[in-house]
Amino acid sequence: MTGTVGSTALLVCLVLSATATLTTWLLSVLTREYSWVDRAWSLLPPVYLWVFAIANGLTDPRLVTVAVLGTLWGARLTFNFARKGGYRPGGEDYRWAALRRRMSRAQFAAFNLFFISIYQNLLLLLITLPAWTVLENPGTPVGAADLIVTAAFLACLAGETVADQQQWTFQQHRRMLRAQGDTDPGFLQGGLFRFSRHPNYFFEIAQWWLVAGFGALAAGSILQLGSLGALLLTLLFVGSIAFTESISMERHPGYAAYRRAVWPLVPWLPKRARATAPV
Asked: Are 145 and 203 in contact, with CB atoms under 8 Å apart?
């Protein structure tokens, strides 16, 4: 019975994912804006998680916990994306414009179809598959390990909230200084960014590895399909760091010194004193 319920729920999510893929691709072609998947990024995973939780009749506490945590993640990320103007017309991620300048029109069209639209939408489904693993493995006792994973997830959620708020406050201050004709500080080096160049990325990745942890608790092994999403998400962010920092190196002369002093992802003590003072 469980296998049938799990298969049906997975099929529903596959249909939703395929619909999202087609929709975001068509919108990108019609509007020539390429952040439609970005706009769906925080919305789709909670939907998939609740599909799996509802398929079980909301009777599995582990499944409901994962769905609630995923919803908190999505709500926080949606708020942060909205206040930066991501949902407004023209609110395209600046990295796509930079990438278009580095590619031919045909190359970017293929990139948009296969990576932005197909791959990223598939990834948004894959990171939620630990919930499907939980659905497929009912009856595993919920215990202290679940409480630890839940607490760790909430701590990472708080960490990402702090990092994004620090970035938001810095950017608002930067806009004010530029409007007044004062010196542009360039990029954030204070707060959590003293210990990691991308603390928000670190906490984002960690949250989905913790979601994979719920699947591992249900299946009895981290080696399950749900972990693939967390692994691919990690690789995506590593690639994003390399690309984003190549742009930052072009824009900000002091970024090279910052890179030498501060760890790229996992927060840790600075490697050495920086040439520029923290902001």
From this structure: no
Q: Is 217 in a helix, a strand, or coil?
A: helix
8 Å CB contact between 113 and 25: yes
Report how far residue 15's alpha carbon sits from residue 213's, in angstroms, rounded to the nearest whole number: 26
Contacts 24+ apart (CB under 8 A), 184-190: 185/279, 186/251, 186/252, 186/254, 186/255, 187/248, 187/252, 187/254, 187/255, 187/258, 188/279, 189/258, 189/262, 189/274, 189/276, 189/277, 189/278, 189/279, 190/166, 190/278, 190/279
pTM recorded for the entire structure: 0.92
Give the position of tokens 């439609």: 36
Instruction: Output the CA torsion sign for 37, 126, 196, 272.
Output: negative
Question: In 3D, which of 233, 22, 214 has the Cα closest to residue 136?
Answer: 214
Q: Which two tokens stand for residue 21?
A: 């893929």
- Please give the single-letter amino acid code of residue 170: F
The gap between the terminal CA atoms of the chain, to the nearest Å, is 58
- Give the tens place of pLDDT for each residue, 40-52: 999 999 999 999 9
